[in-house]
Amino acid sequence: MQDESGSLKLNKEQQPESFSSYPKNLVEKVFNSTTEGIMITDEKMRITLVNAAFEKVTGYVLNEVRGETPRILKSGRQEKTFYATMWNELKLKGTWQGEIWNKRKNGELYPEYLTINSIQNEQGETTNYFGVFSDISIKKVVEKEMETLTFSDRLTSLPNRSSFNELFSQIITESGSQAKHAILFIDLDRFKQVNASLGNEVGDIILVEFAKRIKQIINKDDIFARYGGDEFLLAIQDIKNQKEAAQYASEIIKSLSKPFYLDDMEIYITSSIGIGLYPQDSEDVDKLLHKADKAMYFAKQNGRNQYAFYFEELKRDSKRQLFLEAELRKGIQAKDFNIYYQPKISLDTNEIVGVEALVRWQNDQIGVVSPGEFIPLAEDTGLIIPLSELIFEKVCLDILEWRTLGLNNLNVSINIASLHFQQDNFIERINEILMQYNCSPQQLELELTERTIMKDSESIITKLIKLKNMGFKISIDDFGTGYSSLSYLNRFPLNYLKIDRSFIQHITSLKDKQAIVESIILMSHRLQLKVIAEGVESKEQVKILKEMNCDIIQGYYYSKPVPSKGLMDFLELWEILKQEGKQ
C-alpha cells in the first residue's frame, strides 16, 4: 500500500516474509524473468540485490555491485542539479520517474527510463529503495532517425521545409518587430526535362551541386533549405532594404550562368525566384511563403531566369483577386459549390473503406476555378468559415441521398481549415449541421494539417478529445510538410496519418522518399495509427506501399475525384470487378 506521501509502506501481511508463502523458485523466476532491470538498495542506498535483466543491461553481476551505490552507473551526462531535484522529489513523494543516462561496465553510455520508489516500515522509516528501469537506446535511435527524416533533406543535407519554417519562425521571434527579413523562393527552370531526358540520378547530382554553389555565396546566418523537388528556400536576415534582397537573387541567377559538368556533358540550368518581404508582405511565415511562391510563378510566367517581388505580381493580379473575392461571396450565399469524392482503398482487404470530400467551383463568368486559387483566397478573407460549413451541409445531403440507395456505412473525410477549426464555436456549429440533417459523427473523419494541431496544442488536444468522444475519427493530413515529429503526435487522439503526395510521387525512383515513407509507416503503426497514402498513380507505387504495410491508399490509379453520382457508379463497378476476380 501507499501512504499519503506516495511511498510504499508495508504492513505485517505485506512484509517481505510474506513471500515465504510462495515457492522460492517461483519468486526467483518472476524476479529474474522480467525484461526490466531491477535494483534494490538499503536505506543508505547500498545495492543489495539486482536481477538478471540488470546484469544484462549494465554488464555488472551482483557480486560486483553489492555494497556499491547507484553512483557506480553514473554517466556524467546529468548536472548535479538534476540529481538534487531527483532525490528531493524522492524524499518528498516517495517516488521518482523519468529518463536518465547511465554507464555500462564497458564504459558505454545508454539512456534508460527509470522509476525509483522508497519502502517504509510501519514507523514510517525508509528501509529500502528499489529501482525499475528499461533500456531505451533503440527508442532513442528511432526518434533521432525520425527527427532527421522529418527535419533534414537526405539528398542535399539541407534543412527541409519543416525545419525552415521552424528556424525562420525562431528568427522572427528573436529579432523583434522592427527587423526586416526576406524569403526567396527558388525554382529551377525546366528541371523536369533534365530528369526526363537524363534520368533522376543526373538530376540529383545537379541538385546537390546547385546547393553547394548557393551555400558559397550566402552568409552563415542565412537559412538555405530544400522545399521539395527542384524548389529551394532562402531566408535572409536583417536586410536593410529591398535592394539587398534583389542582390541576393541576382547572385543566385548569376551562379547558374556557369554550366554543370557531368562527364563530357555541359548542362545549363536557370532559375526563377520569387521574393517575399517580412513584415511588409506578411508577418505570418506560411502566408509569406505563399506570397514568395506566387511571385516566383510570376517570374516564371514572364520568361524565367529572373526574379520578382510579390508586390509587383499583386499589382497585376489585384483586379482578378477583387473580382474573385466578390464572386466567392456570392457563390457561398448561393451555395454554388459542388462536392466531389475520391475513394480510399484498403490494401489488406481491397475494400473501399471511405472517400475524401473535395470542393469544386465553376463560376458562371470565368468557368472552373482551381481550389489552389479560391481556397487560399477564402482563407485570406475569412470566407473559409462559411465555405467550410457549406461543405459540411453538402456532404450531409449526399449522405442522406446515399441512405435512400441502401448505402449506410460509407465514411467521408472532410478537410478542416485551420481558421475554421480555431473558432470557439467550431464544435457547436458542426454539431448543429449534423443534427439538422440527421447525420452521425461516426460516419465522418476530420482531416487537419500538422500546422493546425501544433498551434496552442493544449487547447487543440482538448477540442480533439471532445470531437473523438462525439464519434468523429481524426486524421493528420499532408504529414511531412509541417514541423511535427511522429513521437510528438502521440499526444493527440488520432486515428489516421496521411502521408503527403510529394513523398508518394517519387517513391518508385528516389530511395530517400522510400526510406521516409517506410519509417513513417513503421512509427505510425507503433503509435496505433493507420496510414493513408494519397496521390497514388501507378501500379508500382501500389506494390511498394503494400510491401511497406501501408493500410489505405487513394489516388488517380483507382479513381479521380468524382461527383456523388459518379461515385455510385464507381462503387457498383468495383463490386462487379471484385466478383469477377479482377480487383
Automatic annotation (TrEMBL):
- InterPro entries named in the record: Biofilm_reg_signaling, EAL_dom, EAL_sf, GGDEF_dom, Nucleotide_cyclase, PAC, PAS, PAS-assoc_C
The residue ranges of the PAC domain are: 96-148
Annotated PAS domain ranges read 23-69
List, for all copies, the residue spans of the domain called GGDEF. Answer: 179-312
Pfam families in the cross-refs: EAL, GGDEF, PAS_9
Per the database record, which ranges form the EAL domain?
321-575
Annotated stretches, region: Disordered: 1-20
Protein name per UniProt: EAL domain-containing protein
